[in-house]
Amino acid sequence: MKAVLLDGFGDRDVLQMGEIETPSATQDQVLIEVMATSVNRADIVQRKGNYPPPKGDSEILGLEVAGVIEDIGPGISGWQPGDRVMSLVGGGGYAQHAVAYANHLISIPECMTFEQAACVCETYITAYLNVFMIGGLKDHESVLLHGGGGGVNTAAIQLCKNLTPKAKVVVTASPPKIERVKQLGVDLVIDYKGQDFVEQVKAFTDNNGVDVILDHIGSKYLAPNMAALAIKGRLVVIGVMGGAKAELNIGLMMVKRLQLIGSVLRARPVDEKAHITAEFTKTVMPHFTNGNMTPLIHRVYPLHEVAQAHETMEESRHFGNIVLAVAAAE
Q1: Any idea which architecture 2-119+296-325 has in CATH?
Q2: N or C: which end of the chain has fewer CB within 10 A?
Q3: Considering the entire predicted model, what is its pTM?
Q4: How far apart are alpha carbons 189 and 187 in whole angstroms?
Q5: Architecture (CATH level 2) of domain 124-262
Q6: Consecutive sets of 10 residues in the chain, 330 residues long: mean pLDDT of each?
Q7: What are the residue boundaries of the structural domains of the chain, listed by start?
């Protein structure tokens, strides 16, 4: 099968189209003919040699797939060849075939294309897990989402508007993306390059702060994030783009009774990801099926243009998700 292979680690030139043996579905797995996958920030980090896949998973890039079941392994029930599915995978999405655990599969609604489905599992599940299952956002509360133009945060905005419509949603964004973020119906957009987000949050919340923050910056934002949180606020950190080490003001954390939570999705055990997927399927998928939510796609690239797709993400030119069309890989 055709796949994107890494010629070592480094810049985008290590991404090479090549041929590799098609994987086989083993116990509790299915083999999927991949129609589309997406580009996620984790793919960039792995390409540079800093984010290896979990033990036993494919070393090929790609954390989610959308396609058609081609074969099923032993112990599978409820799924059959020909079913349209999307799924989290530990690796292997940038290829014509991938294996996925059956308990990680989600049926693709008839109203959804493969390209749209390829945007759901990594970004929307990440947003749902961290804002709602971990962050515990409630309808009367407020949330601050950093980096409003990315896939996870545009997903989080949609989830907040549908699952907690009375919650106040505050988003930081770069100047070129502010108007588009506003169009998603958020309550406040902050220009993080020209405005102090702590001051803006304080003014917006009558000096109370927000209840939940979803952050992918890390150390650079630790102190201001804590300052922007309300009493009993929850900071969920899902990335370290701004550094991994910072000084923690434990006194402030104690006085405000804050929770600082680190979270990743990829490294979680299979059964844990199955539980998260089941909860997501039950709670969120009906909003896709009834048309309340539609995955935001910045652009669909053919698989052989993977380097250009990575460039778009690295330069933050995208709004929403970047998709790779795999089915017609040449």
Answers
A1: Alpha-Beta Complex (3.90)
A2: C
A3: 0.95
A4: 7
A5: 3-Layer(aba) Sandwich (3.40)
A6: 97 97 95 98 95 94 98 92 97 98 97 97 97 97 93 96 98 94 96 95 98 95 98 96 92 97 95 98 97 95 97 93 84
A7: 2-119+296-325, 124-262
